[in-house]
Amino acid sequence: MSKVALITGASSGIGEATARRLAADGWHVVAGARREDRLAELAASADGIEVHRLDVTDRAAVAEFVDRAVRDHGEIDAFVANAGVMPLSRLDAGLVEEWDRMIDVNIRGLLHGIAAALPHFTRQRRGHFVTVASIGAHQVTPTAAVYCGTKYAAWAITEGLRLECEPSIRVTTVSPGVVASELADTISVPETREFMRIYRKDSIEPKAIGDAIAYALDQPADVDVSEMIVRPARQR
């Protein structure tokens, strides 16, 4: 029987790459995201992937996403909290609604996933949480203060989860550097878009992060890969 992995933000980028890698490794993947058309394309192009529309800011929807997987498959083996947004801007731009969106998706979305999956992992006495944080959890760049704050929060929450969980429940934080993705497409300030275009000129493909997640999940039960930073060799 295949192991079951749930992945949020799976319609593109790191989430999509992780879904494809785990499915290729024989996992049954339950992929969630808001863009149903992209999810349908993903499911049609790879075996072993089922898809469901999911908005991680909706706590009840996240709970149902997890509970349905348990009902359908009996148990779940991994939860990959990948959903994230990055509408960067300077603080003096005052784009409070964009700040709120980052807080809602990057922090509350992660907490909703933990709240939904942890009771099942505790009951099973096993499971593996993976949080996709960011190099922004470790360093701050201009225009990224709020984004980096949310990713530091994601790192801290996940590390706290690791310390609180029994050893049978493993916890991993993966912090990507610059990855080719659609994240920067949400930036609304032209000057910031140009800054990030230059900053992101050296990037790696999402597959590199999917491979890192697969590595962490593939370790023996007594090995916990607690944290990884995966970035382009040229990124400093």
UniProtKB/TrEMBL annotation:
GO terms assigned for molecular function: oxidoreductase activity, acting on the CH-OH group of donors, NAD or NADP as acceptor
Keyword Oxidoreductase annotated: yes
Family indicated by similarity: Belongs to the short-chain dehydrogenases/reductases (SDR) family.
Sorted UniProt keywords: Oxidoreductase
Source lineage: Bacteria, Bacillati, Actinomycetota, Actinomycetes, Pseudonocardiales
InterPro entries linked to this entry: NAD(P)-bd_dom_sf (IPR036291), Sc_DH/Rdtase_CS (IPR020904), SDR_fam (IPR002347)
PROSITE patterns reported in the protein's UniProt record: ADH_SHORT
Transmembrane helix among keywords: no
Protein name: NADP-dependent 3-hydroxy acid dehydrogenase YdfG
